[in-house]
Write a structure and sequence with these properties.
Length: about 260
Amino acid sequence: MSQSNRQCVITGNWKMYKTLEEAVSFVKELAPLVNGTVAKVYLAVPFTAIKSVADAAKETKIVVGAQNMHDASKGAFTGEIAGVMLKEAGAQFVILGHSERRHLFHESNDFINKKIKRALIEGLQPILCIGETLQENEAEQTEAVLKAQLTECLADLTAEELHPLILAYEPIWAIGSNKSATPELAQTVHSMCREFVAHTWGKEFADALVIQYGGSVKVDNARFFMEQPDVDGLLVGAASLSVDSFSKIVNYQGVQNP
Ligand code: PGA
């Protein structure tokens, strides 16, 4: 975990899992188990569950957010959702640029850039996901791919505007594959990203930037990632679907006020 007072943020990404009823009972069960953790606990839930989960999470450590949004403030975009609607429902953050959005729904860096701008306007904290494919990794293109994603997704935004941003490094080959990156690889990539961010947006912003690792994070490997100096948090998919595993990941450092 970072030496520079960056807050640890652990985000559960539920993807298209959990009905409203399942979501609310999960949060009621999770809340007392994570009350004393040193980490910030974020849950990115399905759109339909945001309002009820946010209500159930009031007065708890759990912060509720969304997994995607459109870049327009409103309009004729059948099936889409606007940031202002998420905010009204109780979302405080939004995951943008997840590899499933990029690959299955063909989202470009340019589109993600527009969404980040909209999220910031609406007061939603963006979690920007970046990551390389297995092919890019094997061709040693990771650095070039990530730098291009950062440059294009964060284009025309100043360090001041980007202040709330969280970055999540998710190597695509590690997502849902049970084949996580090694903690050492995550550290190397996070450190490279932080240096690049410092070069472009300044050292002060880069030093304060929370960078999460995501991709097959489980109870038994979470703490090894968190021991790395440039890993400030985790983005957890499958292991966030069970109260038992997610609470153990969130409490990896033990609790402050048990
Ligand atoms: P995983 O998913 O933990 O199931 O690999 C991570 C993610 O997609 O954010």
